[in-house]
Design brief:
Blueprint (H helix, E strand, L loop, with lengths): L2 H5 L3 H8 L1 H4 L4 E3 L5 E6 L5 E5 H10 L6 E5 H22 L8 E3 L6 H11 L5 E4 L2 H10 L6 E4 L5 H12 L3 E6 L4 H12 L4 E5 L24 H13 L6 E5 L9 H21 L5 E3 L23 H19 L5 E3 L4 H4 L3 E11 L17 H11 L6 H20 L5 H21 L13 H4 L2 E5 L3 H4 L1 H6 L5 E3 L9 E6 L8 E2 L2 E2 L4 E2 L2 E3 L9 E4 L20 E7 L5 E7 L4 H7 L4 H17 L5 H15 L8
Parallel strand pairs: 4-22, 5-6, 6-7, 7-8, 8-9, 9-10, 10-11, 11-12, 14-16
Antiparallel strand pairs: 1-2, 2-3, 4-13, 13-14, 13-21, 15-21, 16-17, 16-20, 18-19, 22-23
Helix pairs in contact: 5-6, 5-12, 7-8, 8-9, 11-12, 14-15, 14-16, 15-16, 21-22
Bound molecules: pyridoxal-5'-phosphate.
Pfam family, one: Orn_Arg_deC_N
GO biological process, one term: spermidine biosynthetic process
Cofactor: Mg(2+); pyridoxal 5'-phosphate
Length: 640
């Protein structure tokens, strides 16, 4: 970065650099002090902005230190509102003759607080839940106390699952069973006849339409779930035989999650509507069309059909869906169905932010050399290396780099054979770093960067050590190369003069973040600020509300982080409405079947033996056991 650029840096430059307003969906912004804010409107239409740094400090003072997951109840409410209102206005403006009934798929964030908040905020819209297992159905039945809302049951269902759903129908709950495999319909017929309850049957179909994006394996002929056209006909015939065709009410499909291209969404709707119209023709009752999930989140803010983005707005999605349904069904003279979507990712992604602090950094900067460090008796190879360093110009970058590398490697070989000292080797490494850094700085001045040197900025970038476990808190980064916006939550009025990758606290070589969002491409390094003595440096990972919280795997026994739910009230005050302390070390040990009491007892015996052998005093034993117990009940992450 040029000196002038550093000195004139403003918050606006940070907003642009990190794309905050592009991915922030109007929820995230930054204030005059260079801090990221969450912005919410109250019912009176007043905008309140709250600094994430203030929330982090407030939580730390309450004993919930970093790493900390912050859930914004307002953002969850707002997103439920946006989805429902967008469908409402699309339905109104196009004259669609039925309503929208969203359901939230519990698997996307199963946390009780989240599901409760969705049920609460969704009440006024009749927003329901999707359950993919018995456990999820049990949670849904208790939390969703609203008979306007639907419960859609997907996944493999045994008799117990179906019986529970059927009996709940007697209570007035609207439960739908979606048939996912040909054999399931027999179980449903059997249970319904025994229970004497008319089931609401749905059917999941396999669409031939293939979609783009990461999750495209869920669509097309080979998708695991859903019925093909032959199975569908067999099912219709079976229901007709049993006089139950009027129970077949819903058509369901799911294209896969995070569908970046609106064209794929539209193609899916069109194909599904063909099936829908034919089922009506066959005599099924129908009335509900369930489009599944797939509504994407624009993680990089690029508004493109790139995997981590989407080339459509929520309004466009709703209008396209409504118009595609009308376009197909009107020409067949079929009545408009209730539109159901199972948007998970788009509902919850915005509401959670993971905050963590940086513990330390490593930079690949050379150290200042003494004047006389290369003298008469220094090995000639080192002098060659110094010559290579001194001859770097914009015209010979590649050549100088090759020379530097060659001499450095020669010196490494000499060291291996005992022909240069450790000090000479260290000197050589330092000279090479100087050479490489000088070349890197000159890369900006040449028109065409030689291919071999293109990776130099990454190779020389800093490593920032973060107090977080990627495996536990951001599993998709590791598992599927998911990109999330990652931004310092403060100091945005200062130029970020360092380029870095992030290493997590697990010290596993996969526990790193080295791909970052960019509007054109994927960044290999993230611009960050140099650490200041005595001041925390806090980064936020945004849009992590979907799929991240429950997939964590206790890698190195790092457990759940601290969590706070906050609500920004009508006056703009922050209400810490709920808090959950992260796992203690005793918690994570017991997850993998250790008994903390037993461990203590064994350690006590070890200490007692040391007393007997006079290695420690009884008083020292007490201190050691105290340290052991205190660690056992402490946080699994780095504590200050
Ligand atoms: C996972 C899943 C969803 C949620 O998809 P999103 O893309 O997160 O909205 C919806 N329906 C079914 C059947 C699913 O398996």
């Amino acid at each position: 970065m040029k000196q002038e650029q550093i000195e004139n840096w403003t918050c606006e430059d940070s907003a642009e650099l990190y794309g905050i307003r592009n991915w922030g969906a109007g929820y995230f912004n930054l204030n005059q002090s260079g801090e990221i804010t969450v912005e919410v409107k109250n019912d009176a239409g007043e905008l309140h902005a709250v600094s994430l740094l203030d929330i982090a400090h407030g939580a730390t003072e309450r004993g919930l230190g970093m790493p900390l997951l912050v859930r914004f109840e307002n953002l969850l409410d707002a997103q439920i509102g946006r989805i429902n209102n967008s469908f409402r206005s699309a339905i109104e403006s196009s004259g669609y003759n039925n309503v929208f009934r969203g359901v939230f798929p519990i698997k996307v964030n199963q946390q009780c607080q989240v599901i409760e908040e969705i049920a609460r905020a969704g009440r006024q819209f009749g927003h329901g839940l999707e359950a993919g297992s018995k456990a999820e159905l049990i949670a849904a039945l208790s939390i969703l106390d609203n008979t306007d809302a639907l419960i859609v049951c997907n996944g493999y269902k045994d008799e117990e699952f179906i019986n529970l759903g059927l009996q709940a129908q007697r209570l007035g709950v609207q439960v739908f069973f979606v048939v996912e495999t040909p054999s399931e319909v027999d179980t449903i017929i059997h249970c319904a006849q025994r229970e004497q309850v008319e089931p609401n049957i749905g059917v999941r179909i396999k669409l031939a339409s293939k979609v783009g994006g990461y999750w495209n394996a869920t669509s097309g002929d080979r998708s695991i779930f859903g019925l093909g056209s032959n199975d569908l006909i067999a099912m219709v015939d079976k229901l007709r035989d049993q006089n139950m065709l009027h129970c077949l009410k819903l058509l369901h499909y799911h294209l896969g999650s995070q569908v970046p291209n609106i064209r794929d969404i539209r193609t899916g709707v069109l194909e599904a509507c063909r099936y829908y119209a034919d089922l009506v023709e066959e005599g099924a009752a129908m009335g509900y069309l369930d489009l599944g999930g797939g509504l994407a989140v624009d993680y990089d803010g690029s508004k493109t059909n790139y995997t981590h983005s989407k080339n459509y707005s929520l309004d466009e999605y709703c209008v396209d869906v409504v118009e595609a349904i009308m376009g197909t069904l009107d020409s067949e003279g079929v009545e408009h169905p209730v539109i159901i979507t199972e948007s998970g990712r788009a509902t919850v992604a915005y509401s959670s932010v993971l905050l963590f602090n940086i513990l330390d950094t490593t930079s690949f900067e050379p150290i200042e050399l003494e004047e006389d460090s290369i003298g008469e008796d220094t090995h000639p190879m080192l002098k060659n290396l110094q010559d290579a360093l001194q001859s770097v110009t914009p015209k010979n970058l590649q050549e100088s780099y090759n020379d530097g590398l060659y001499y450095r490697d020669e010196i490494r070989a000499l060291y291996l054979h005992g022909q240069v000292s450790l000090r000479d080797r260290a000197l050589a490494e330092n000279l090479f770093l100087q050479c490489a850094q000088r070349i890197r700085k000159l890369l900006n001045e040449v028109d065409q960067v030689p291919v071999d040197l293109q990776a130099l900025p990454e190779v020389l970038s800093d490593i920032y050590y973060a107090n977080v476990s990627v495996f536990q808190s951001l599993p998709d980064i590791w598992a599927i190369d998911q990109l999330f916006p990652l931004v310092p939550v403060h100091r945005l009025d200062e130029a970020p003069t360092r380029s870095a990758i992030i290493a997590d606290i697990t010290c596993d070589c996969d526990g790193k973040i080295d791909r970052f969002i960019d509007r054109q491409d994927v960044r290999k390094t993230l611009p960050l600020h140099p650490l200041k003595d005595g001041e925390e440096y806090i980064l936020g990972t945004f849009l992590v509300g979907a799929y991240q919280e429950t997939l964590g795997d206790l890698h190195n026994l790092f457990g759940d982080t601290n969590v706070v739910s906050v609500r920004i009230d009508d006056d703009g005050q922050v209400d810490y409405s709920r808090e959950i302390h992260g796992d203690s070390i005793a918690d994570v040990l017991s997850y993998v079947e250790y008994s903390p009491q037993d461990l203590f007892e064994r350690f006590r015996k070890l200490a007692e033996r040391a007393v007997k052998e006079k290695r420690i005093t009884a008083q020292q034993r007490k201190d050691i056991l105290h340290t052991y117990t205190a660690s056992m009940s402490g946080y699994t992450y780095f504590e200050k």
